[in-house]
Amino acid sequence: MRKSQILHQDLLLKQIRQKIGDKSLNDEIANILNISYDAAHRRTSQKAKFSFEEAMELAKYYQISLDQFLGTGNQLVVKRTQPVKTTEDLLNYFESSLQILDVFQDTTHSQVYYSAKDIPFFYTISNSVLSRFKFYVWMNLLNQDKFLSPFS
User: Fold this and answer.
1) What are the residue boundaries of the structural domains of the chain, listed by start?
2) Which CATH number applies to 3-69: 3.30.420.10, 1.10.260.40, 3.10.180.10, 3.40.50.2300?
3) What is the rounded distance in angstroms from the CA atom of residue 82 to the CA atom of residue 80?
């Protein structure tokens, strides 16, 4: 096994460990990949490597971007958000957006380009009238069956 493959697998396993906390890593991987405990153990002890499909399945399940393992300085990450139809969707949208921006926190030469049909959310998070009106509109659109008091 090549050194870079071990390194990538080790990085993926570390991120999974962070996400699962005290749960058994072998049990988690065995359940997600639908493999035996022994097969999962061979992968976690790095006696066997993940197939591309297995790594993709784990990354998808734990919402880990495999882009970070490329190791190049010029990376492009594209994320398409889901439509916001409920209050829970709105909360997920904010959490997902924060996770994307957290990736760039440690880099000094990164740029983020935001393409949307509306004003980017980070321009409207403040105590301004625009911010309050934006949230009022979102909540009205999401809760059409409930009457919200008029905006003032």
Assistant:
1) 3-69, 87-142
2) 1.10.260.40
3) 7
Question: Side-chain half-sphere of 147: how many Cα atoms within 13 Å?
Answer: 2
- Nearest CA to 26 among 52, 16, 18, 79? 16
In whole angstroms, what is the distance from residue 134 CA to residue 112 CA? 22
Torsion of CA 123, 129, 131, 132, to 10 degrees: 180
CA-CA distances (angstroms) from residue 77 to 15, 16, 28, 64, 81? 18, 20, 27, 12, 13
Give the number of other Cβ atoms within 10 Å of residue 84's Cβ: 16
Give residues with Cβ within 8 angstroms of 142, minimum separation 6: 84, 85, 86, 87, 89, 90
Say whether 32 sits in a helix, a strand or coil: helix
pLDDT at 54 over 70: yes
Residue 29 neighbours by CB distance under 10 Å: 24
**How confident is residue 76, by pLDDT bands cut at 50, 70 and 90?**
low
Model pTM score: 0.49
